[in-house]
Inverse folding.
């Protein structure tokens, strides 16, 4: 007969993760969600906390708490990054991402069950070298961005929706290739 163990309460685990913190984990999480997921500015968050929650916090206090949480979660992030690179198929893409009015890049590596994101000011092979620390023993599915050619992997596959989107744009060319129009009409719509 299997021995039953008492489940660990989530509150206990989270509280232990931030010992001696000046801000509780719920307040840190709510502020992080408001800022990073909803785009609420720090001054707006401070107003909400002050007016609605009667909770005084400073911008630097929130930033320090978020950096601390980031360091605590870094091993989990690295474990997810390593896990997804051991899958048979890995999808990769990047898109523009605004940070303080400047264009950065949101890089995404995703499998069927997990995803890893990185926001970086660079849009090239140097970022991929940091993400792909070793040989990818699987299929890397990407768009046609040339930087992905620098990734060492078992094989590459190009993303079909990106291919069809690019082909659809060729409809407006004055001299498309001979079989292009029929291919586009059959597959791109």
């Amino acid at each position: 007969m299997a021995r039953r163990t008492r489940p660990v309460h989530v509150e206990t685990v989270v509280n232990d993760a931030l010992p001696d913190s000046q801000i509780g984990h719920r307040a840190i999480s709510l502020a992080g969600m408001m800022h990073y997921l909803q785009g609420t500015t720090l001054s707006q968050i401070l107003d909400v906390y002050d007016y609605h929650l009667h909770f005084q916090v400073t911008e630097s206090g929130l930033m320090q708490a978020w950096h601390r949480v980031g360091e605590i979660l870094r091993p989990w992030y690295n474990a997810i990054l390593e896990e997804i690179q051991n899958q048979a198929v890995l999808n990769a893409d990047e898109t523009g991402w605004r940070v303080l009015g400047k264009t950065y890049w949101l890089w995404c590596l995703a499998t069927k069950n997990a995803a890893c994101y990185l926001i970086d000011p660079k849009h090239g092979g140097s970022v991929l070298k940091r993400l792909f620390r070793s040989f990818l023993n699987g299929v890397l599915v990407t768009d046609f961005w040339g930087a992905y050619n620098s990734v060492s992997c078992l094989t590459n596959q190009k993303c079909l929706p990106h291919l069809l989107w690019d082909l659809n744009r060729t409809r407006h060319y004055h001299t498309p290739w001979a079989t292009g129009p029929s291919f586009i009409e059959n597959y791109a719509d």
Remarks:
- The chain has three domains: 23-81, 88-157, 159-189.
- Residues 8-12 have pLDDT under 50 and may be disordered.
- The helical segments are 10-17, 25-37, 42-51, 59-84, 125-131, 160-169, 180-187.
- Residues 80 and 138 are 16 Å apart (CA to CA).
